[in-house]
Amino acid sequence: MLKVSKEFFDLPIEEKMKLYSNDPSKTTRLSTSSNLQKEKIHNWRDYLRLHCYPLDKYDQEWPSNPSSFKQIVRNYCIEIRKLGLKLQEAISESLGLDKDYINNSLGLEQGQHMAINYYPKCPEPELTYGLPAHTDPNTLTILLQDMQVTGLQLLKDGKWLAVKPFPNAFVVNIGDQLQALSNSKYKSTWHRAVVNAHKPRISVATFLCPCNNAVIKAPSELIEDESKAIYKDFTYEEYYGKFWSRNLDQGHCLELFKNSREI
């Protein structure tokens, strides 16, 4: 997966630009930074964004160059989805819920997106980030790291810690939807991407997302009474629209969905 991702970003610029778009509603697009229209400081990143589920609906849009791209990415998406759904079962059980509770709450046709991130070497890395500090708006993020260059950092106890790549392993980040659904028993992961002055790097992030019309709310088992629900009920479509209308560095979007008595 990393190899074919690098092959894509090594293509001539004219070939890649066929997919370029700043329209976030496009289901296959190449873009740069995060929000070019609103950002004061741009991120040092290019990325290929792909919708991945259902595969038969979207994979015809994917790049046909490199020639092996579609098949490799298709196989990867199938296996990553299996892993993500299993993880959500385990998280559900850890909360004392039926193992299918979270998957059922998020909708049987849960979405799946992918961002193949390319961080070029940067002459002045202290002036920008690959991605600034943020949490992810989805349910789970399963990250495949470049084995050659460390770039991911996680916030723990007020300190930023580098996450070194580990062979044959993924990094799994909790997203905002799981924080809301678990009534904050699980916390979404604050993370950022730093850039390197000497080496480019690739990462592949897969996002599992609720159905657009899925209502995100904490189950009664996780709240003493309605007054103890930290967040208002909302749909994923509502949340996602709010998230992408803001800059990544504008703070935690989930704060906008708190019950007024909890603010």
Automatic annotation (TrEMBL):
Residues 110-210 form the Fe2OG dioxygenase domain. It comes from the Eukaryota. Coiled coil: none annotated. InterPro entries: DIOX_N, IPNS-like_FE2OG_OXY, IPNS-like_sf, Oxoglu/Fe-dep_dioxygenase_dom, Plant_2OG-oxidoreductases. Gene3D superfamilies: B-lactam Antibiotic, Isopenicillin N Synthase, Chain. The keyword tRNA processing does not apply. Keywords: Iron, Metal-binding, Oxidoreductase. The keyword Oxidoreductase applies. Pfam families: 2OG-FeII_Oxy, DIOX_N. Belongs to the iron/ascorbate-dependent oxidoreductase family. This is Fe2OG dioxygenase domain-containing protein.
